[in-house]
Design a protein that fits this description.
The chain has 694 residues and is an alpha/beta fold. Among the domains are: 127 residues, Thiamin diphosphate (ThDP)-binding fold, Pyr/PP domains (Rossmann fold, 3-Layer(aba) Sandwich), CATH 3.40.50; 202 residues, 3-Layer(aba) Sandwich (Rossmann fold), CATH 3.40.50; 124 residues, Rossmann fold (3-Layer(aba) Sandwich). It has 22 helices and 23 strands. A seven-stranded parallel beta sheet has the order 1-8-9-5-4-2-3, sandwiched between helices. α4 crosses α11. The longest helix is centred in the middle third of the chain and has 23 residues.
Length: 694
């Protein structure tokens, strides 16, 4: 059973000399000066468009940050976490420049200035926070799990004592991410600290709406494997002691800890918030708990004289003014650069995240297959590729639901846990948010996570993490990236249904920063998967269920050095009268339908990027275009292809651009209904003939 430690009224002893209290005092005053500057000048002047005051939260955050001393410590905060960043060493000029959306800083003006990140090569880093409440928890769990992997599997002593810290308000404990991370951290006994700043309100909603009784520490009293500590974050001595207690527990590898500190939110949720939902008495009570006067009372005269305190306060205000002067000289980023860093770019490596920042150099590869042995199905081809890449790269880690002893519901990972061990191939809790979120943290810590989403439809609970991962490089202006390979089986197989047979690849294409592969056969699956595993961008690797053991899709293994570039279509059949553009399970159907016709059949193989040049070149030669895919017609990816052809090859066409897809319905279960809905060979052939006769 979890242990609930609640501090009693602390004795008013002399300040604990293990803390640099003069620095704490300086940072709290600096944080207050920055808040005041924004609220009184920069927001009214419209130089800062989003502002979240940290007043009341600041002292305890700074005490926490001052204890993040290990090289591989990392913290992931939220929009009220600037005091923590100041304690980690972030220059106030960067903080203000980011708030004013100027060049440099956290994002170069691409993201809100309170959405922090701090890649720190010399000490603790601040992982890129997300704008969504609760989205910070599972990536931090992934970072903590990566610490253990570096320490125990890669035998890197530099990770001894390192921890992951996640900051969240009382409102965030109602989120899926919180509970997913709590499950991960406790079942895996991870070195992770949940730091909950309970100010009693989630925007305007009391904390009693988020958790029964408004006390998450009390409610988790019976949660196994979790140390729980609770106390007052406004009392300097108490807050410092409880933070040290929590830190010691996690650093000593005794498991995760949840530290709940009560603090007042002395301003509104944001600058625009009038706090009309708080009574005058509540506001008065909050200001009576202001930690800054308490800090001064604690330090003066026991440790500092009044003159020394005044000098610290004056220096903090002067430094804030100097930081503003320097930040004001920073220009707005050149607008033409705003399209950069969606994906990795040659010669411009991210500061943190992925294996490439650790000196990884991909082995030599070739796009030319060297066939070996008998034809194998796509299941075997994917498994063999994973096995080879895991053998030569000990940073590759596989995980998901049922992928361990069972080998996955499609048997792709069968035998891999037995060969590589449970640390490298492991099952997870049933939480797609947790699967992808932890993969994000592991990727930022330099591993190559290969999470599996069991079926395409099951990716929906992970949508926020998928989006946040894809935008990470862009929104941090190439400071962070989280390359990974997400394996996603989907599509029909013998029968269909709304839950296991969805394709909807276009949703992934519409997530900026994700590459998307959709191989139709074993050879292409090997080449694209190998490129993805050695690359520097997150990849959705779509495995069509119907192709996994389909005879047409079988190919000889193309060799351990075979790797295909993304964005290069393959012409699987050549002709002069019509271009058929397709991918996945529709490729063999289009090939069969084109028999007896002079047709180019283009297998796109990847949808992001996709081979626009090959499509346009073929259409300009054949002067007709048919697009065939399994996904729904409305807003399907075929619409993007049709739009390109209409935009850039309209004058070359002898017939309208045509699409043949499923109707706008979920995948039906009965095979008769499924055959009616999915484009058939006969249906494709009829459409070809219609276009040829136009």
């Amino acid at each position: 059973m979890a242990k609930l430690a609640v501090a009693s009224e602390p004795p008013r002893n002399a300040p604990d000399e293990s803390h640099d209290w003069a620095r704490v005092a300086y940072l709290v005053n600096l944080s207050r000066a920055l808040d005041a500057m924004e609220e009184e000048r920069l927001v009214p002047e419209k130089k800062v468009l989003y502002q979240f005051s940290a007043r009341g939260h600041d002292m305890a955050q700074i005490l926490l940050g001052c204890r993040l001393t290990e090289r591989h410590d990392a913290a992931c905060g939220y929009y009220r976490s600037r005091p923590l960043l100041l304690s980690l060493g972030v220059d106030p000029e960067i903080a203000l420049a980011s708030a004013m959306a100027r060049s440099g800083g956290y994002s170069g003006g691409r993201d809100i200035g309170t959405v922090f990140n701090y890649p720190n090569p010399h000490g603790a880093s601040a992982l890129p926070m997300c704008g969504g409440v609760g989205a910070q928890y599972t990536p931090t769990a992934g970072w903590a799990q990566a610490i253990e992997y570096h320490r125990t599997v890669l035998n890197n002593a530099a990770y001894e004592g390192a921890i992951g810290v996640v900051l969240g308000g009382d409102g965030s404990v109602a989120s899926n991410g919180f509970w997913a991370a709590l499950t991960i951290a406790t079942t895996q006994a991870l070195p992770m600290l949940f730091y909950i700043e309970d100010n009693g309100f989630g925007i305007s909603v009391p904390s009693t709406f988020q958790t029964p009784g408004g006390d998450i520490a009390k409610n988790l009293g019976s949660w196994s494997g979790l140390e729980i500590i609770s106390g007052d974050g406004t009392e300097p001595q108490e807050a410092a002691a409880l933070i040290d207690q929590a830190m010691a527990h996690v650093r000593d590898r005794k498991g995760p800890c949840l530290l709940r500190l009560t603090v007042p939110r002395l301003q509104g949720h944001s600058f625009q918030d009038t706090q009309s939902y708080k009574s005058a008495r509540v506001v008065e009570d909050e200001w009576r708990r202001d930690p800054l006067p308490k800090l001064k009372s604690y330090l003066v005269p026991a440790l500092l004289s009044q003159a020394q305190w005044d000098e610290i306060d004056a220096r903090a205000k002067a430094d804030a003014e100097d930081a503003l002067a320097r930040a004001e000289t920073r220009p707005v980023a050149d607008p033409v650069t705003v399209t950069r860093n969606v994906f990795s770019e040659d010669g411009d490596l991210q500061a943190m995240g992925g294996q490439w920042t650790s000196g990884y150099v991909p082995p030599p590869s070739t796009p030319t297959p060297v066939p070996e042995g008998q034809r194998i199905n796509m299941v075997t081809a994917i498994r063999r590729t994973l096995e080879h890449e895991m053998t030569i790269n000990d940073r590759v880690v596989l995980f998901g639901e049922d992928i361990g002893p069972k080998g996955g519901v499609h048997a792709v990972t069968l035998g891999l846990q037995e060969k590589f061990g449970q640390a490298r191939v492991f099952d997870t809790s049933l939480s797609e948010e947790g699967i992808i979120g932890r993969a994000v943290g592991m990727a930022m810590a330099g591993l190559v996570p290969v999470p599996e989403i069991q079926f395409r439809k099951y990716a929906e609970p992970a949508t926020e993490q998928i989006n946040d991962c894809g935008t990470m490089r862009w929104r941090t202006d190439n400071r962070f990236a989280a390359p990974m390979v997400v394996r996603v089986p989907g599509g029909f197989f013998k029968c269909g249904d709304p839950w296991h047979s969805q394709t909807n690849e276009v949703a992934f294409v519409h997530q900026p920063g994700w590459m998307v592969a959709a191989p139709s056969n074993a050879e292409d699956a090997v080449g694209l998967l190998r490129t993805a595993l050695r690359g520097n961008d997150p990849v959705i690797f779509f495995e069509h269920r119907s192709m996994l053991d389909f005879a047409w899709a079988r190919r000889p293994y193309p060799g351990d050095d075979f790797a295909l570039p993304f964005g290069k279509a393959k012409t699987t059949r050549s002709g002069d009268d019509i271009t058929i553009v397709t991918w996945g399970a529709m490729v063999p159907r289009c090939e069969e339908a084109a028999e007896g016709r002079s047709a180019d059949v283009l297998d796109l193989r990847t949808l992001m990027p996709w081979d626009k040049a090959a499509v346009l070149a073929s259409v300009r030669r054949t002067r007709r275009c048919l697009i065939v895919h399994e996904d729904l017609k409305t807003a399907g990816f075929g619409a993007e292809i049709a739009a390109l052809v209409a935009d850039e090859a309209f004058m070359d066409l002898d017939a309208p651009v045509a699409r043949l897809t499923m109707p706008d319905i979920p995948s039906p279960h009965n095979p008769v209904l499924l055959d009616f809905a999915v484009p058939s060979v006969a249906g494709i052939r009829a459409k070809i003939d219609d276009l040829l006769a136009f």
